[in-house]
Amino acid sequence: MSNVKTNKQGLSRRNLLKGAAGTGALAGTATLFNINHVWSQDVTWDGQPFDAGGATLRINEWGGFWQEFMQANVLDEFEKTYNCKVAYDSSFPWFPKYVASGPKDPAFNVGNWNLNEIIKLSRIGDFFLGTDEMKENIPNTADCWDFAFGSGLGVTWGFGQYAYAYRTDLLDPAPVGFKSFWEDRLAGKRATYITSNGLQQVFFMTSSAEFGSGQTDMEAGFDAMRRAMPMKISDFTGNMQTLVERGEVEMGVQWEGEIFLQMDKGIKVAPLTWDRKPILTQTHTVSRYSEPMQKKLSLALVNAKLDPKFQNLAAETFYVRPSNKEAVLPARLTDKGVTNTASALDGLWIPDWNWYLDNEDEITETVNEIFAG
């Protein structure tokens, strides 16, 4: 699903040494971690709880209500079970923090984010475990759909399809197809995002593919952005929800979970799913060069996020689709036609983020000029 290249070496085949101090510190813990060498990528985990001795696990993940949910539904119990402390950083962006610390002194042990930032980091350093290594050490990966490992980096635990949110009471007839965004009746009443937002980046690549020869047809994408003007530019999905709710925007780029939430609030809105079926993912990474205890805790935390019971709760709360085959969808998703079956994943598309990152500067500069008018 992606052209990302990752290091797929097994855990026991890497022979880097952290130094004499590290050797001494780890001497008494060899049986606990099953270490053949002293460097942390040799850590393995068999799925059983263990005592972390009060160690701190540093994670990056979304803030606000998302953080409150994670704390109440997974992190509080995780801290008790493993005798550890989770230090939660919700101050996005996290990319520069990883860059500043470097891969061998990672700013965070576990990350939860979208693919574009993960892939960008993988291009400048060996920051994260590959999917093969995660599968070997995280038991719940055995029950995940194959697409969860499509990036080659980390594991996706939840996702949602991209779609347009449109006002059902303001648009008659209802829009049909991806290209309906450009209809004359929507001039000044359609919206997308700032160029740093991944939703706009996927929207640009999808526009390039729909109007040109493929997602790499930048000129077709630029022309599509020009023809869409005038339009409103939002910074994040919550703000897009507000614009749609107020009627300032009659059609906006969105992902389905936010639309489903508004529908259940009684707002007259519906999703128009794109034919290419790109997806917005929630993907966990594990930092390759974390200390051994933090590395083992990282594997355990990702395993907890892949548990079907947790994914059921996340689906109920955030309308996010699970990646675990055993997760049971809540009525608020099934009554909108969502299923958790292999066929439901047919045609899901993750664009070539390597290509986008190769051309990001030109795309960002040109699209910002278009948006500025």
Structurally, the number of domains stands at: 2
Q: Helical stretch count?
A: 15
CATH homologous superfamily of the largest domain? Periplasmic binding protein-like II
| CATH top level class name of the largest domain | Alpha Beta
Q: Radius of gyration over alpha carbons? A: 22 Å
Compute the number of strand runs. 10
How much of the sequence lies in strands comes to 5-15%
Mean pLDDT across every amino acid position: 90
Low-confidence stretches: 1-40
Query: Helix coverage percent of residues?
Result: 25-40%
State the distance separating the first and last CA atoms.
35 Å
Give me the secondary-structure category: alpha/beta
Shape: globular
Oligomeric state of the chains in view: single chain
Order of helices and strands: HHEHEHEHHEEHHEHEHEEHHEHHH
What is the makeup of the main sheet?
10 strands, mixed
Characterization of the model:
With 373 residues, the protein is α/β, with parallel strands linked by helices. It has two domains: 11-158 and 281-335, D-Maltodextrin-Binding Protein, domain 2 (3-Layer(aba) Sandwich); 159-279 and 350-372, 3-Layer(aba) Sandwich (D-Maltodextrin-Binding Protein, domain 2), CATH 3.40.190.10. Helix content is 38%, strand content 14%. The protein has helices spanning 20-26, 30-33, 65-82, 95-101, 115-122, 131-137, 198-211, 218-228, 237-246, 256-264, 292-305, 308-318, 331-334, 353-358, 360-372; strands at 56-60, 85-89, 110-113, 155-167, 190-193, 232-234, 251-255, 269-273, 279-286, 321-322. Strands 1, 2, 3, 4, 5, 6, 7, 8, 9 and 10 form a ten-stranded mixed beta sheet that branches. α3 crosses α11, α7 packs across α8 and α8 (218-228) packs parallel to α15. Residues 1-40 have low confidence and may be disordered.
